[in-house]
What we know:
By secondary structure, the protein is of the alpha/beta class.
Amino acid sequence: MNTQSISTTTLPVSTRGIQLASRPDGAPTAANFALATRPIPELAEGQILVRNTWMSVDPYMRGRMDDRPSYIAPFEVGEVMEGSAIGEVIASRSARIAVGDQVTHFAGWREHAVVDAELVTPIDTGSAAPQRFLGALGTTGLTAYAALTDVAPVRPGDTVLVSAAAGAVGSVAGQIAKALGAGRVVGSAGGPAKTRLSLDEFGFDAAIDYRAGDLAGQLAAAAPDGIDVYLDSVGGELLRVAVAAMRPRGRVALVGAISGYNGATGEPGPDLYLAATKEVSLRGMLVTSYLPLSGEYLAKAARWLADGTLRTRETVYEGLEQAPAAFLGVLSGANTGKMLVRLG
């Protein structure tokens, strides 16, 4: 490679990646993925070669496995998938990015990636562990922050409900709601272990178990005076119950709808007439629309992590081969906190 800056070690000529082998019919399975070895192309001017060390798997990726119109292009069958990752630059033809830099980028699901230097973000691994920039210090945390400051802003004294409270976005969101002055924060999680973790580690004031049934009754007990803000990552029955429990002019941030990602049908949606009569706002969000807030959020989140205001958990799978299992796990709720794959 005719690089302006190269590592002192021999550069690899091929690398492994996880490609989409077939489109799922309903819930994905391991058969929808394949491990493939491919040559690494020569670097063009302005490109870098990254050795990936961490990658993220996220629920939104399920939609990209289907061939249908959406806000982001579907994965192509037979091609390596993509997603957020962190890695070390091992070769560079860019004046902006040097060998040895740690960067975040969007070419995960592979062990090495050739990336345009303008599409990566250098990170300071002296301030936090690198994988944090895929979780609380990355778009995961930014999603929670933007949802609760702009999409469905929390006001002092509000009662806030957060879905997937032991998950990547939800666990951060509950703590951010507290930092923003919420009077009471209720989390919804799956099973006694996760509801207990929401209370003991993530600081929720109350937690409901969506697997235990009677969501309306549980929410009424946890928030007897109703709720002002709901961060929704699941859709379905919990969204219906949350809208019913809303106080007048309540606010809902529609962040995701994982309950329907595999084509499930039959779950009742929210009562829109009730939402209208209460003047409830339901507003969708894509975190890509809030990337300009990254600097503001990162400064606050770094301080919150340092002083203990924000605590995080990670569920880590080891090795590229385990990336499909990690992804299937995040869809089934197997993770606590951020689901990550360590590549090296």
